[in-house]
Amino acid sequence: MPSEQQDFDPDILFARPLMAHLATSGAGGAAFGSPVWFLWEEGAFWTIGDLSSSFLKRLGVQPVCAVTITEFDAEEGILLHLGLRGRADVLPMDAARFRRLLARYLGPDPTTWNPWFIDNIAAIDDPDGRLIRIAPDHLVTKNVSYFRTGPNIIQP
């Protein structure tokens, strides 16, 4: 995968349960970035959607997309940015992968997950649920953690 800039190992951000933003385009051009939870496995970015998701519909028409992940901690002076571009594949739901993704954000014990959330928002057995896989064509990491320190970059 070609890289334009690598200020830090991307696994630093891929390993953390951060919010990512998925940017798609459609007939009208660029769309808003959709905030998504994600999982990094097998060299690919995975997220979820369902058949009613507007970003899923746009990916069906134009699968080229971009993802950004940012870690920002003003108090510590940390600002790490990861960006990737690639082509999305919309795949049938894989319950095991979906559970791993949810565990990153909700904790490892499914008995502690909010039942209302699982039943209404993140239903593992939803027949309309889909996985979106993006294998990056380009990946960039930028450490701009100098906004408080000047040229002395804080290392992740």
From TrEMBL:
Protein name: Uncharacterized protein
Organism of provenance: Pontivivens insulae
Organism placement in taxonomy: Bacteria, Pseudomonadati, Pseudomonadota, Alphaproteobacteria, Rhodobacterales
